[in-house]
Amino acid sequence: MLMNPVETMLVDSAPRAWLQRAYELPLLHRLGARISGQRVVEVGCGRGVGAELLLDRWDAAHVLAVDLDPAMVERARRRLARFGPRVEVLVADVCELPLDDGVVDAVVDFAVIHHVPVWRDAVAEAVRVLRPGGQLVFEEVTRHALQRWSYRTFLEHPEVDRFSAEEFADALVDHGMRLPVPPVTRFFGDFVLGVAVKPAPTDPVPS
Ligand SMILES: C[S@@+](CC[C@H](N)C(=O)[O-])C[C@H]1O[C@@H](n2cnc3c(N)ncnc32)[C@H](O)[C@@H]1O
């Protein structure tokens, strides 16, 4: 589901970019995100601030940045043009990524999957495109936030079957991912951040 004009304004703001750069990136790094030299797909890239950070700060080898909204893709393309062949920006649905199975080292989700009506399909698709040993790095918005008066009044999200932090973590495990470090919640449980790993076939099965 696309953002409404109020959310577009909030997401396209300097405070949002600051939050991603100064708070979310260091926290995700502490939780185990390792992107340097990796082939990454960033889902729901918006205007491209996240992809820019992945390339500049985390030194990703290549980022495929996708968004459902062609206007966002156009803006991200302009922002990311300076990275040349290290980046590609496409209109695509996180539930139908234009990638073969197991071809990326990392999938990065900055606040996108809560916008997807059948959100478990987005989780399944992220797992599909990851190589064994690859990471799903996420910052998500929980049901706790979406039920707030402010979210319901000013923003638009799918209304049924939203997830708590625990349900999001459980869905990752249900799709075969491991959580070496437990995800963390922030702001009274409104946000959940973490790093899930797709096990390699040789990994020991947890007891
Ligand atoms: C809350 S914004 C987050 C944007 C950016 N990642 C950030 O953190 O600032 C959600 C983004 O997800 C995109 N989006 C929503 N549903 C999507 C889907 N099914 N597939 C890909 N992108 C989607 C929206 O167009 C929007 O750009």
How would you summarize the topology of this molecule?
Blueprint: H1 5-11, H2 14-30, E1 39-43, H3 49-56, E2 62-67, H4 70-80, E3 87-91, E4 104-110, H5 119-129, E5 130-141, H6 143-146, H7 149-154, H8 165-174, E6 184-186, E7 191-197
Parallel strand pairs: 1-2, 1-4, 2-3, 4-5
Antiparallel strand pairs: 5-7, 6-7
- H/I helix tally: 8
Order of helices and strands: HHEHEHEEHEHHHEE
The percent of residues in helical segments reads: 25-40%
Q: What portion of residues belong to β-strands?
A: 15-25%
The strands making up the biggest β-sheet line up spatially as: 3-2-1-4-5-7-6
What keywords describe this structure?
7 strands, 207 residues, 7-stranded mixed beta sheet, Rossmann fold, 36% helix, binds S-adenosylmethionine, 8 helices, alpha/beta
Description:
- With 207 residues, the chain is an alpha/beta fold.
- The protein has one domain (5-197): Vaccinia Virus protein VP39 (Rossmann fold, 3-Layer(aba) Sandwich), CATH 3.40.50.
- Helices cover 36% and strands 22% of the residues.
- The protein is built from eight helices and seven strands.
- It has helices spanning 5-11, 14-30, 49-56, 70-80, 119-129, 143-146, 149-154, 165-174, and strands at residues 39-43, 62-67, 87-91, 104-110, 130-141, 184-186, 191-197.
- A seven-stranded mixed sheet has the order 3-2-1-4-5-7-6.
- Helix 5 (119-129) links the parallel strand 4 (104-110) and strand 5.
- The longest helix is centred in the first third of the chain and has 17 residues, at 14-30.
- The termini are far apart.
- S-adenosylmethionine is lined by residues 1-3, 11, 16, 43-46, 49-50, 66-69, 72, 93-95, 110-112, 115-116.
